[in-house]
């Protein structure tokens, strides 16, 4: 039999996140990428607001990349409950 590799070649733009080991928690690398993106945003750095306030404000101080990561993280967490994902795999999860 031929074994199929689970590594689909998904990579983050940030090399630090690509080199982190999997913690075994589902969607963990997406969560870490989202946290890092929000922490480095103008809203958190200079305006000293909380991450939740920055995400809910939608005033342009958080990059669109962070909102894309938030959507991917949400899809990944939702797919954990979806029974169809047993066959299709988790959406947006980075497999290493």
Short summary:
Involved in an early step of the mitochondrial complex IV assembly process. The protein has 96 residues and is mostly helical. The chain is 50% helix and 0% strand.
Report on the structure:
- By secondary structure, the protein is an all-alpha fold.
- It has a domain of 56 residues.
- 50% of the residues lie in helices and 0% in strands.
- It is built from 6 helices and no strands.
- Helix 2 packs antiparallel against helix 5.
- 19% of the residues are buried.
**Gyration radius, in Å:** 15 Å
Q: Largest sheet, if any?
A: none
Low-confidence parts lasting 5 or more residues at pLDDT below 50?
A: 1-8
**What's the tally of helices?**
6
Spell out the blueprint of helices and strands.
Elements: H1 15-19, H2 28-39, H3 42-45, H4 51-57, H5 64-79, H6 85-88
Keywords: Disulfide bond
Protein name: Cytochrome c oxidase assembly factor 5
Family: Belongs to the PET191 family.
Looking at this protein, list some descriptive labels.
mainly alpha; 50% helix
